[in-house]
Amino acid sequence: MVPVKKMQTIDPEKLAELLRRHQPAVALTGAGISVESGIPDFRSRGGLWERFDPMEYATIQAFRRHPAKVWTMLREMDALLVQARPNPAHLALAALEAAGLLAGVITQNVDNLHQAAGSRKVVEYHGNAHRFVCLACGRLTPREGLDFASGPPSCDCGGLIKPDVVFFGEPIPPAAQKEALDLASSCALMLVIGTSAEVAPASYLPFTAKDHGALIVESNLETTNLSRRLTDYFLSGPAGRQWPRVVKKVLDEADAHGPADRA
Ligand SMILES: [Zn+2]
Description:
alpha/beta; single chain; 2 domains; binds zinc ion
């Protein structure tokens, strides 16, 4: 009989020690980490998908058929995203990377907040809403170069332009998928933050990490299906409050050990 796995809760200070002992570490983040930046989870109550049926507004087929209709949703999504700023959790992950304790962030978010916080290795698993792509010629345009207040923009080639995010019915960009798998299969510790990792194929990444021997740390407000199935250590509470404590402990330890230990 397989013994029942027991998940342990962990506090930020203990987690800092765990992070030092198990390297490399990789983070997998989702909507929950950006809620404290004012971006409601699209799937939650009051979220975008409550008012816009994703099957009608967020599939690639719907976009190709009814671009003007889908753009009414995209403008709302854009308005939510552009005013958002990184919160202390995003900044903490950037600080961990700078301290040499985080090999990268795989994010399911399209809000660009990890990059804005200063994270350098960010795998955009579902794309980035600050970048736009032409469906006909593939040309990429930064958000700043587009005017879509009056209607759907089109490319110089006449093609349809959409945010460079993965719509329902579209595959994960192959380069992002490969980078994510490389990180997940080579890490000793995976930090799953602000996501229950239930949407495939991102949902496989913690299992990939586990299969390769990694410990799984989950940081969410409440336990999830992942907690019961896979998580080794659970950090509860708002990520924006808990992760700065992890960073503080990491930096205090580095100071205590002297500059040589930082190299
Ligand atoms: Zn084009």
